[in-house]
Amino acid sequence: MADAAPTRMTSRPAALALALLVALPMAIGPAAAQRSESSTEKKLYRWTDSSGKVHYTDALPPDVVNQARAELSASTGLVRNQIDRALTPEERRAAEAAAASAAEAQARLENSRRSEEAKVSSFRTEADLRAAYAERSAIIDETLVSLEAAINSQRGSLHQQLGVAGDAELAGRPVPPRTISVILELREELKKQDRARLERAAEKQVLGEELERLVVLFRERQAARELELNPDA
C-alpha cells in the first residue's frame, strides 16, 4: 500500500503575511490611481488680454506667460491655482530694496530692544531709573537755557549792526565792509545756535520717550520676577 501524500501545513504567521501581501496592492491601488489622476489632471488657463477680454485656453500663448492668470480644473471648472503676473525689473529691484530696508529696520529694532533691556538691568528700582533720566533731562534743560541766552545775545548784536548799516544807508554813505562782514557772521552764528537748540529739544523728547519704554519694560521684568518667586500668587 502506497504511503499517503504528506499534508501541507501553513503556520499562522506565514498565513497572515500572505494575506497582507495579497491585500496591499488592493489598498494602495486606488490611492495611487487618484494621485496619478490628480497629477495628470487637465488644466485650463483663464487670463485677460490688454483690451480686458477674458480668455479660457488649454495652453498659454507665449506673450501671456508672464501675465496674471488662474489655473482651473478642466473637469470641474474649479480654480486650482492663482498666479500673479511677473514683476518688471524695476518692480523687482524696488521689492528687493523694500525687503532689505524692512530687514534693516527689524535689525535696528532688535538691537534697540537688547540695548534697552541692558539699560533696565542696571537699575535696582524704578525710582533709580527715573532719577537717572531726570538728571540727563536736567542737563539738556541747562543746555537749552544757555543756547537761548546765546541766541538772544546774537540777536541783539545783529540788531545793533543792522542799525549801523541802516544809519549809513539813510545818510547816503556806503555801509562799511566790516559791518557787512559782522552781519553775515552773526546771521550764520544764529542759524547754528538755532539748529543746536532744535537738536537739544529733539534729544529731550527722545529721552522722554525712551524713559517711558524703559519704565514699561522694567515693570514687565519686575512682574515676571515676582511671578517666579511667588508662582501661586
From the alpha-carbon coordinates, what is the Rg to the nearest angstrom? 41 Å
Q: Which consecutive residue ranges, at least 5 long each, have pLDDT under 50?
A: 1-11, 20-28, 30-38
How far from one another are the termini?
A: 95 Å
Structural class: alpha+beta
Helix percentage: 55-70%
Q: How would you characterize the largest beta sheet?
A: 4 strands, antiparallel
Query: What strand line-up does the widest sheet have?
Result: 2-1-3-4
Outline type = flat
Number of helices: 4
Order of helices and strands: HEEEEHHH
Question: Averaged pLDDT, please?
Answer: 84
Work out the strand percent.
5-15%
How would you characterize this protein structure?
The radius of gyration is 41 Å and the shape is flat. The chain has a domain at 126-227. By secondary structure, the chain is of the alpha+beta class. Helix 2 (89-121) crosses helix 4 and helix 3 (126-170) runs antiparallel to helix 4. The chain has four helices and four strands, in the order H-E-E-E-E-H-H-H.
Secondary structure topology:
Layout: H1 12-39, E1 43-48, E2 54-57, E3 69-73, E4 79-83, H2 89-121, H3 126-170, H4 177-229
Antiparallel strand pairs: 1-2, 1-3, 3-4
Helix pairs in contact: 2-4, 3-4
